[in-house]
Design goal:
The protein is an alpha/beta fold. It is 45% helix and 22% strand. It has 13 helices and 12 strands. It has helices spanning 4-16, 19-26, 30-44, 60-90, 103-106, 108-117, 135-138, 184-187, 201-206, 210-213, 227-235, 248-254, 282-302, and strands spanning 49-52, 55-58, 93-98, 122-127, 144-148, 156-164, 166-171, 191-195, 219-224, 241-244, 258-262, 269-276. The strands form 4 sheets. A 5-stranded mixed β-sheet has the order 4-3-5-12-6, with helices on both faces. The longest helix has 31 residues, at 60-90. The model has no long low-confidence stretch (mean pLDDT 90).
Length: 303
């Protein structure tokens, strides 16, 4: 019988696309990882990975096995996290995830309203970085999270907090850097910062304007797996990306030579709370209620 450890090893190798990188992520020696994958292939009597100079790719059998292996790991993780959520619910504890800036910086009014209404609640925060796999998988370690433009998932609820225009991030050496404003049509054929294949593809493509283009961009540079790698690619002047307007100051701080250009006609990005539909923690409902209350007040003030 295949162990969860072997499944985890295989899924990590498949997502990293390289045994060396996967071994480092798993904190095991590469020979031990290679042996574990070879044992799986021997058990099933079929090659799951195609080895080549740059790393590994899934065979057809490997693709089928990867889907099932990932689902099995997610099911086990869901069971563990359901128990943790019940435990946190009993202790008035909330695990709040985020990507990029933390909630008190990204949504200060919501954070202040929620904490004022729940002074005894114990709120912990977790930086979840960029989503890998599905939105549901990304949410597994937390009760609720704050994310720009989450990809819908049948097991996930979403509450939009606000919309923001998208901007283009470029280095000062890039040919677009002198522009004061851009349109989508003017940047669709530019080279964009590429992303690691393990990242959630719909959301990753959103920042490359796939939603306007109807498909992947013409050319990408690099395979950024985190914000730091993306910043390095952009700072090199070889590629661009889009981002929420509020990311502009952070980008300029991290890349002093960076330039932020408004993207006039792009579909806006949305900042949203996302959580599993069946999360038992009552603090999730209270946080969402606080968000809806603030939205109602904002609408009333505009009328």
């Amino acid at each position: 019988m295949t162990s969860l450890r072997h499944l985890r090893y295989f899924v990590t190798v498949a997502e990293e696309g390289q045994l060396t990188r996967a071994a480092a992520k798993l904190h095991i020696a590469q020979p031990a990882l290679s042996q574990a994958v070879a044992q799986l292939e021997s058990q099933f009597g079929v090659d799951l990975l195609a080895r080549h100079a740059r790393g590994v790719t899934l065979t057809r059998a490997g693709e089928a096995f990867y889907a099932k292996a990932r689902a099995a790991l997610e099911a086990v993780a869901d069971a563990d996290l359901a128990a943790l959520s019940h435990s946190r619910a009993g202790g008035r504890r909330l695990e709040w995830g985020f990507s990029g800036l933390p909630p008190m910086a990204r949504a200060p009014e919501l954070f202040a309203t929620f904490t004022a209404a729940n002074p005894a609640a114990e709120v912990s925060f977790r930086d979840l970085s960029w989503p890998r796999g599905t939105t549901a998988a990304w949410l597994q370690p937390v009760d609720i999270a704050l994310l720009f433009s989450p990809t819908p998932h049948p097991e996930v609820e979403t509450e939009i907090l606000r919309t923001e225009p998208r901007v283009v991030l470029v280095a000062s050496t890039h040919p677009l850097a002198r522009r004061s404003e851009l349109t989508v049509a003017e940047v669709l054929d530019e080279s964009f910062c590429g992303t690691h294949p393990a990242l959630e593809p719909v959301r990753a493509g959103f920042w490359c304007l796939d939603d306007h283009r109807g498909g992947p961009c013409r050319a990408t540079v690099g395979e950024a797996a985190n914000p730091q790698e993306m910043l390095a690619v952009i700072a090199s002047g070889r590629a661009i990306t889009t981002a929420p307007e509020s990311a502009g100051p952070t980008f300029r701080s991290a890349v002093p030579s960076g330039v932020v250009i408004p993207l006039r006609d792009a579909i806006p990005t949305t900042l949203a709370l996302v959580w599993h539909k069946h999360n038992p923690n009552p603090l999730v409902e209270e946080l969402v209620a606080a968000a809806r209350s603030l939205d109602g007040r904002a609408r009333a003030s505009r009328e």
